[in-house]
Amino acid sequence: MRYLPKSPAEREQMLKAIGAQAIDDLFAIIPAEYRLTRDLDVPRQQAESEIIDYFKSAANKNATDYASFLGAGCYRHYRPVIIDALVQRGEFLTSYTPYQPEITQGTLQAIFEFQTMIAELTGMDVANASMYDGSTGAAEAVLMAMRVTGRQKAVVARTVHPEYREVLHTYLQFRDLPTTDIGYVGETGRVDLEALEAAVTQETAAVLVQSPNFFGVIEDIPAIAEIAHKKGALLIVSIAEAVSLGVVRPPVEADIVSMEAQSFGVALSYGGPFCGVIAAKEQFLRQMPGRLAGQTVDGNGNRGFVLTLSTREQHIRREKATSNICTNQALVALMATIFLTVYGKEGIRELAEHNLAKSAYAAKTLSEQPGVKLLFNGAPRFHEFVLQTQETPAQWSQRLLDEKIVGGIDLGRWYPELKNATLWCATEVVARGTIDHAAKVLAAAPVEA
Amino acid sequence: MATTETQINRSIGKVRPHQTQNEGLVFEKSSPGKKAYKLPPLDVPEVDAAALLGDAHRKTAGLLPELSEIEIIRHFTRLSTWNYAIDLGMYPLGSCTMKYNPRVNEFVSRIEGLAEAHPYRPESLAQGVLEIIDLLQRCLIEITGMDSITLQPAAGAHGEFTGILLVRAWHESQGNARRKIIIPDSAHGTNPATAAICGYQVENLKSNAEGGIDLEALARQVDEDTAALMLTNPSTLGVFENEIHKIADILHAKGALLYMDGANMNALVGKVRPGDFGVDVMHLNLHKTFSTPHGGGGPGSGPVACKKFLEPFLPTPVLVQDKNGAKSWNYDRPQSVGRVRAFYGNTGMFIRALAYILANGPDGLRQTTEDAVLNANYIRKNLEDLYELPYKTPSMHEVVFSDKRQAVKGVKTGDIGKRLIDYGFHPYTVSFPLIVHGALMIEPTESESLEELDLFINAMRSIAKEVEETPELVKTAPHSTRVSRLDEVQAARKPILRWRPDGK
């Protein structure tokens, strides 16, 4: 076995040193009737070349040569190659949680830089060292708001990613913490402010919205904040598309921002690992879940970094704990940090503007085709938009697939009231030619008899 | 007593001082106008962002750094040299399982068709990744001896949460959710937190003199209100619960379930299967047992395996296969606990874990387990004359000593750990498990050669001698690092959690 650095003679020598006759002596404590006396039924040991062949052949079945308009919480952006070059350095890749600060300053300083960048981008005071992902981060943010306010109800916009809402429901279902769903305005795709106003009460801990929302529409955060704050509720803004912050005003009126940082240089990887993050106003710091890196000094007065405020964490509070978060996504957060350093202050804006331009062109070009209508056109968008077609999505999407294009995702699976509506995304990596090609295919609907 | 340069140098054979550059924060290196990026020319008409977005337009950019590519490479490369890592040497962090991270895993996870697969692509265009998920699921079911599995949870603690949700959903389907979960005092800290966030009361269970479950105490404690026992096996003491089947029987007789925290599964793979000894539901940590890298704290992945009767409650979606072998996600699960994460889980970690299983095969997996246990016992044998062994029960993959003998000299487990740094090792796990006062929890894993184990043993023996002769040397360690012991009190009292341009 090529990963195991011991020769048979060394094993014998070690057994002898321990005073054991055979390796199974060391497992004698396991009752005989439960010991496995056969080989596990898993594939045989394979050569490195065979392993690579297996995964390459699997990858080929995934049809990589298709263009795509998919988004919906998982976004294709160009990933600068230095990201993988740097995160694959063994000292980052193969280190553990920086519990011993003297020999983990690299990870700690990088986390501190990550926290700073996220705070800068979101307009919040502090950010943590990452959460599992955007969906669990949003759920943790709601629980955090409940701790801060001592209230037990949440109001959630239906324009929050449907899977995020499902995760929130899972987190709350056995804790007797009710939520109220708020719909959207048909014209704009934005949260229905009147319904929101009516739903928020003195018992509401948090209002959870997403912006840009699941339809790609940017919510009116100042107005939503006013409604929430009037009743003493906290406003949580979930951001699924972090690149939007290059050009979209940060939700500074929010109390907590829960973000998915996948867009910052993290591969799609069929949905994970991604990188959630919670950022908040300073006064809520001590209720914030997850790890934090803080600046301090060593015995000689040199600047250094440590994990801090860990009294909030599960391993101290045990059954009093309010979150069981343990692992974070440090390596993925490092990818995001490198991505943001590559683009920098100007680049992130330029990148976001390219996304805006691509999507504006795509929305216009596709919606000009016969039988296609752009929904929610009454509010600003980032790089996603909703089209409504006369044909069913199944019909035209097959024609697109025949041309090796994956079109927008059918919204009917989550919003039955939106008939033949699909969500499209055009990031900077979508070529104009692909947009024009897709438009032609959409226009080529069979003529009805 | 002052620590002299000679004393420090005399005692250390493995390491030499390592030169690394000082490196400011990335923000401090920034100057306006530097660029490390170049976007291609825009092939669609430009837009006026301010006009398109109106009030939603961002007018002031965030203070992100502006640097060239070479500066970025140097910045992060220099930072990396300040980290200890498994690639540099033994990382005996008990219960965290720092084993070798094979590079082929990294290679295959980055193959374009896998790394660039969008989760919402049509299933017909995702059969390759679905096959990988299916094969990993089947391997993990075989390894655990369970019947069903979900790969959705993003980390071990997230797996615990999912597993306890299954327990709760099942009890509710039987008409009574029950109220409490019993957790041994040797458990991982996440266990009680998990039970609490699933709405359960936590009852502690005191370990017996061998560090195991006290069967009589358990029998007294389990009643019709007990939903489950959360048991780490082998325990955080590195001890196998040899009466595990009786534990299961006691629980099952009262209608309670046995949840196994599988964090220490690397002591069992190929030798024994939890499903065969009465476990109803368990989680695995792919990063601990199946070599996916820890990356400075994550990502993890915490699949949950269960017995057949719990399958209807697994999170949505569940992977299914039609008669032609085509795979798809099934969302129609009326009894499911729901979703625990968007999409399907940390697929990139599934790929790495499967690559590891394929590289090992059945013989390699068994040998790996045997070597991990052999290494821990070798360390135990070679240190038990100098360090107190509070529980004499046979060790599996890790061994837990205490600082009882060194504490007499005023030297604590944390000091010994810090001194190990000077010898070129990462410290072991300090002060855990809580049931051992001043614990030194050592887990070498299978990845260590005899040479590295001997170096570690020599270092520990040498430190024991230093504790006798020059305790101050140990108490003020580390002496070789770029920063000395850091002021954690100040960090917590006056938190500085981000850089600010004015330096405040």
TrEMBL record, chain A:
Protein's UniProt keywords contain Oxidoreductase: yes
Domain annotation Glycine cleavage system P-protein N-terminal: ranges: 1-438
Classification via InterPro entries: GcvPA, GDC-P_N, GDC_P, PyrdxlP-dep_Trfase, PyrdxlP-dep_Trfase_major, PyrdxlP-dep_Trfase_small
Pfam family, one: GDC-P
Keyword Oxidoreductase included in the entry's annotation: yes
Record GO terms (molecular function): glycine dehydrogenase (decarboxylating) activity
EC number annotated for this UniProt entry: 1.4.4.2
An annotated GO BP: nucleoside metabolic process
Top EC group: oxidoreductase
Catalysis: reaction(s): N(6)-[(R)-lipoyl]-L-lysyl-[glycine-cleavage complex H protein] + glycine + H(+) = N(6)-[(R)-S(8)-aminomethyldihydrolipoyl]-L-lysyl-[glycine-cleavage complex H protein] + CO2
Coiled coil stretches, renumbered: none
Family statement: Belongs to the GcvP family. N-terminal subunit subfamily.
Protein role: The glycine cleavage system catalyzes the degradation of glycine. The P protein binds the alpha-amino group of glycine through its pyridoxal phosphate cofactor; CO(2) is released and the remaining methylamine moiety is then transferred to the lipoamide cofactor of the H protein.
Alphabetized PANTHER family for the sequence: GLYCINE CLEAVAGE SYSTEM P-PROTEIN, GLYCINE DEHYDROGENASE (DECARBOXYLATING)
Record's protein name: Probable glycine dehydrogenase (decarboxylating) subunit 1
Originating species: Telmatobacter sp. DSM 110680
UniProtKB/TrEMBL annotation, chain B:
Cofactor(s) essential for the protein: pyridoxal 5'-phosphate
Compositionally biased intervals (Polar residues): 1-10
PTM annotation (N6-(pyridoxal phosphate)lysine): residues: K288
GO annotations of cellular component type: cytosol; glycine cleavage complex
EC code(s) of this entry: 1.4.4.2
Domain Aminotransferase class V: residue ranges: 169-295
InterPro entries from the UniProt entry: Aminotrans_V_dom, GcvPB, GDC-P_C, GDC_P, PyrdxlP-dep_Trfase, PyrdxlP-dep_Trfase_major, PyrdxlP-dep_Trfase_small
GO biological process, alphabetically ordered: glycine decarboxylation via glycine cleavage system
Domain Glycine dehydrogenase C-terminal: 369-470
Catalytically driven reaction(s): N(6)-[(R)-lipoyl]-L-lysyl-[glycine-cleavage complex H protein] + glycine + H(+) = N(6)-[(R)-S(8)-aminomethyldihydrolipoyl]-L-lysyl-[glycine-cleavage complex H protein] + CO2
Example of a GO MF term: glycine binding
Source superkingdom: Bacteria
Swiss-Prot/TrEMBL keywords: Oxidoreductase, Pyridoxal phosphate
Location of the region described as Disordered in the Swiss-Prot/TrEMBL record: 1-23
Family: Belongs to the GcvP family. C-terminal subunit subfamily.
Function, in words: The glycine cleavage system catalyzes the degradation of glycine. The P protein binds the alpha-amino group of glycine through its pyridoxal phosphate cofactor; CO(2) is released and the remaining methylamine moiety is then transferred to the lipoamide cofactor of the H protein.
Subunit structure: The glycine cleavage system is composed of four proteins: P, T, L and H. In this organism, the P 'protein' is a heterodimer of two subunits.
NCBIfam families associated with the record: PRK04366.1 (NF003346)
HAMAP family given in the database record: GcvPB
Listed name of the protein: Probable glycine dehydrogenase (decarboxylating) subunit 2
Organism: Telmatobacter sp. DSM 110680
